[in-house]
Amino acid sequence: MLLEDQNIDRRKCHRIVPMEVLSLGYSRTGTMSMQNAFRILGYPNPYHFSSVYGNVRDCDMWVEALRAKYDGIGQPFGRAEFDQLLGHVGAVTDAPCTIFAKELIEAYPEAKIVLVERDIEKWYKSWDSLVTGAFTPILKVLSITDPWFTGRIQELGMVWMRTQVGAKNLVEARSKARDMYGEYYAEIRRVVPKDRLLEYELGSGWGPLCEFLGKEVPDVEFPHENESESLGVMFEEMGRKGIRNSLRNIAAVVGAAGAVFVVWWVLR
Asked: 78: exposed, middle or buried (C-beta count within 10 Å: 0-12, 13-18, 19+)?
């Protein structure tokens, strides 16, 4: 599931395709299914949190954007910065994009907006599996031993939790979730013009979505991803890659230390 890291510095990029769709349903509301739906409909590179696994340097810009928005550190992101970070993207869904829903709505007034909302208790059950994985102690350890890959992704996740969710630990991520979820949807509905918004219900198929987007109905079934299962696989693969990277990094440090010791022994 994890993509090979492209190692692209998005700061050097610019928009090469139009931003056409902002799918702003919160994380764990079928965002992976929506990503696949947009891909089938022909939108270039639909962006989802899993996209950062294919270019972990994206995490640096997202963290910068979060700190500017919530901590007042640096320049807030606008269209120029999003065109760098998302210039190859024709549709977005899931965090970290949804954390900047209002900014993206303002930056791309030509984009259509799709909103998916789940029953809050069903959503909370799925959310709990996400935050339980995010706060697992092994990821904290791997963030230190594998700073390039695991460290970047973990930092983005933890800054997201601290800022938008207001949580510094698992207990807070659980206790604040329901209020945060309700406030998020109220804000989206408040700022989005009615003519730009489709409130899409998962399970309603291609019809309403394609009509809203002006697309032909594909001759394949609407994608349905088991997000809980996919999340478990993703955390597992991330952990394995982090361990491999950590072992390589530790071996390099031990090897360097051994070389220094040999030189010292010879020259003493």
From this structure: exposed
Cα 206 from Cα 9, distance rounded (Å): 35
Identify the band that residue 179 occupies on the pLDDT scale cut at 50, 70 and 90. very high
Please, what is the average pLDDT of the chain? 88
Rounded average pLDDT over 178-205:
94
Nearest to 154 by CA among 53, 71, 229, 26: 53
Q: How many other C-beta atoms can be found within 10 angstroms of the C-beta atom of residue 202?
A: 15
Q: Which residues contact 81 (CB under 8 A, 6 or more apart)?
A: 61, 65, 75
| Residue 51: both structure tokens together | 């996209």
Please give the model's pTM, rounded to 2 decimal places: 0.86
Cα 254 to the center of its chain, rounded Å: 34
- Give the model's pLDDT for residue 228: 60
Q: 223: helix, coil or strand?
A: coil
Distance CA 224, CA 210 (A): 16
Is pLDDT of 176 > 50?
yes
On whether the CB atoms of residues 10 and 58 are closer than 8 A, the answer is: yes
Tokens (6 digits) for 94: 């899931």
Q: Which two tokens stand for residue 248?
A: 């390589």
- Using DSSP's 3-state secondary structure scheme, residue 219 falls into coil
The kind and range of the H/E element at 105 are helix 101-107
Best CA proximity match to 197, nearest among 182, 213, 186: 213
For 230, residues 6+ apart whose C-beta sits below 8 A from its C-beta are 1, 32
Q: Mean pLDDT, to the nearest integer, of 168-186?
A: 96
